[in-house]
Amino acid sequence: MTVPVRTAVGPDPLRVLDLKPEHMAVIKEALVGVNKEGTGARAFAGAEYVSAGKTGTAQVIGIKQGEKYVESRVQERLRDHALFIAYAPAERPRIALAVIVENSGFGARAAAPIARQVLDFYLLGKRSAAPKRGRKEDDESGD
Predict the structure, then answer these.
(1) 21: cis peptide before it, omega within 30°?
(2) What is the pLDDT averaged over residues 129-143?
(3) How many structural domains are present in the chain?
(4) Among 1, 3, 82, 134, which is least packed by CB within 10 angstroms?
(5) Tens digits of per-residue pLDDT, 32-58?
(6) Structural domain harbouring 104
């Protein structure tokens, strides 16, 4: 029987992006804003730390121009994927993650609550109940 070998991966950057500090500050502020007053706010309400994140949606099937996506009319296996990326604490990140929930729709409804659970456990050692599925109205806020 072969014993698996673990190899530590260092934090060495693959490349350095030449971004102005003031531009990075705007981006970081916007990502924190997602979890404070934006699409991730419901999932991160009452968090004991400041986090940054971004919701997203990945289409599984194409929709004709001018046609409206109505989730209830689409077979479950063809529904959009929910996406959410996050890092925390925002001031000095200790963890970064990406959550993809297949065929679950809007990122704030399905993926952000899972990210919150992971961050709570990692940063605070807290286990919580499974996230409740968000309300349908949450889907209208856009990614």
Answers:
(1) no
(2) 53
(3) 1
(4) 1
(5) 999 999 999 999 999 999 999 999 988
(6) 21-141
Question: pTM for the complete prediction?
Answer: 0.76
Cβ atoms within 10 Å, residue 33: 15
- CATH code for the domain in which residue 42 is found: 3.40.710.10
Write down the residue that tokens 């730390």 correspond to: 49
Q: pLDDT higher for 122 or 127?
A: 122
**Do the beta carbons of residue 53 and residue 85 sit within 8 Å?**
yes
Q: Please check whether residue 69 lies inside any domain of the structure.
A: yes
Residue 52 is assigned to a structural domain of this protein: yes
Contact between 69 and 57 under an 8 Å Cβ cutoff? The reply is no
Residue in the structure block whose two tokens are 């959009």: 80
Positive or negative CA dihedral for 83, 116, 41, 43? positive
- pLDDT > 90: what percent of the chain? 52
